[in-house]
Prior knowledge:
The chain is of the alpha+beta class. The protein has a single domain, classed as HIT-like (HIT family, subunit A, 2-Layer Sandwich), CATH 3.30.428. It is 35% helix and 17% strand. The mean pLDDT is 95.
Amino acid sequence: MCFICKRIEMIKNGVNPWFVAExxxxxxxxxxxxxxxxxxxxxxxxxxxxxxFDLEPSERAKFMEEMVLVSRAVKRAFGAEKxxxxxxxxxxxxxxxxxxxxxxxxxxNYGNNGRGPVWWYPMEKMYSDENRPTEAELEDMxxxxxxxxxxxRAGECV
Length: 158
């Protein structure tokens, strides 16, 4: 079973502390490490397809629509200046989006004078234990994101 499937099983069993919400095509979870405050993943519910182009057109459209909704909610919940959205799958071949809320200075002086993609920031710093939220911080982040998801689902965040 892949890592993402294990995390989904934790959601189904009610023991995933990072779980935020369930949508039609996937699950919204906060990332374990929060260097990019509000870093969120949108996990496709099924492992049967590993490429976006393999989804049936209607399913693909719904998955994309929901990713856009989640991305907008993340931006609003965490005050992002810009959102970076990535669908990779080289590490875990399970469809999932990485949603990075970006703010000025978040990669320090790395990259092009402090500007550039998240992967220009050193991984050992991004994934250090000091970037793991406390239980109280995690609960606050989940509440903020859930509220914005509900606003967006109600059409109030255009």
